[in-house]
Amino acid sequence: MSVIVLVGCGKMGSALLAGWLERGVAAADVVVVDPHARDLPDGVVRLASAALLPATLVPDVVVLAVKPQMMAEVLPAYARLAGRSLFLSIAAGKPLSFFRRHLGAEAAIVRAMPNTPAAVRRGITVCYGDGAVGAEARARCQSLLEAVGEVAWIDDEAQMDAVTAVSGSGPAYVFLLAETLAAAGRAAGLPAALAERLARATVSGAGELLRLSSDEAAQLRVNVTSPGGTTAAALAVLMDAERGLAPLLAVAVAAATRRGKELAG
Q1: Pair 221, 126: CB distance under 8 Å
Q2: Hey, is 189 helix, strand or coil?
Q3: Is 227 exposed, middle or buried (0-12, 13-18, 19+ CB in 10 A)?
C-alpha cells in the first residue's frame, strides 16, 4: 500500500488533500498529522503528532505543509524516514540544505512553491529537486501537485525566490488590483456594490480569457485598446516608463525576492 503522510492540514494542505481524493487517492491511504485539523473527509486518519505514527509505517511520501516558522520544530520526528520516504515540502523560503540539516544528508527532498488558486484546482506549483531525487520520485511529486493545478520544474534552486515573488505572492497582487479597481470605480461615482462587482468580474473574466487564448498577454491588451480611446488614455498612465505599473511591479517583485532570500537565512 502506498501511503501519503500529510504534515499540516491548513489551507494549502487541505487543498492538496481534496485534490488527491478527487483524483482517486483512497482516503485510507492518507494520514494527516495535525493537532488542529477538523472535519477531514471520511476515511482519512488524523494523528495529533508524529509520535503517534506507527513505528513500522514507512510512507511513500511525506508532504510537509506546516508553516515555515514551525518547520524546524516539526522535522526531527521524521528523521527516521530519511532515505526511506520521499519528502515534498511546500514551505516558502526553506532550501534543501535546511531540510538536510534536520533530516540527514541522505534525505530525498523536493522543494515546491504552490500558490493559493490551488484551492480551486487552478494553482501553479514550481518544483526543485537535486540529484538525490530520481525520475520516479519527480513523477510522484508531479502527480500529487497536478491535483491542484499546473506544475513546472526548475534546475537552479536559486530561482525559487523569484518564483515565490512572482507566482507564490502573485495572487495577492491580482487581488490588490481588483480591490483598487473597485475603489477607483467608487471614486468615479459608481455605487460601491456595482464597483465591486465590475472589478471582480473583470479581473476574473480577463484571467480566464488569458488562460484560454493562444494570444500573448501583450496582444490581448492591444486587442482591447482602440487608438485614442478610453483604454488608451488609461494605459498612457499605467504604462508610464517611470511611474507606471511595469516599474512599480518590478520593484515589488524585487522586494519579495529579497525577502525570500532573507527568510532562507
Answers
A1: no
A2: coil
A3: exposed
pTM for the complete prediction?
0.93
pLDDT 10s digits, 222-258: 999 999 999 999 999 999 999 999 999 999 999 999 9
Per-residue buried b or exposed e for 10-33, using 16+ beta carbons within 10 Å of the residue's own CB? eebbbbbbbbbbeeebeeebbbbb
Grid coordinates 465590475 are at which residue?
198
Interatomic CA distance for residues 209 and 207, integer angstroms:
5
DSSP 49-88: SGGGS-TT---SEEEE-S-GGGHHHHGGGGGGGBTTBEEE
Instruction: Tell me the one-letter amino acid at 30.
Output: V
User: Which candidate, 10, 75, 15, 17, places its Cα nearest to that of 41?
Assistant: 17
Helix ranges (H only) for the chain are: 11-22, 71-74, 96-103, 135-146, 160-163, 170-187, 192-212, 217-224, 230-238, 245-264
Cross-strand pairs, 125:
151
Q: What confidence category does residue 265 fall into, taking pLDDT thresholds of 50, 70 and 90? A: low
Long-range contact list for 248-252, CB < 8 A, 24+ apart? 249/173, 252/173
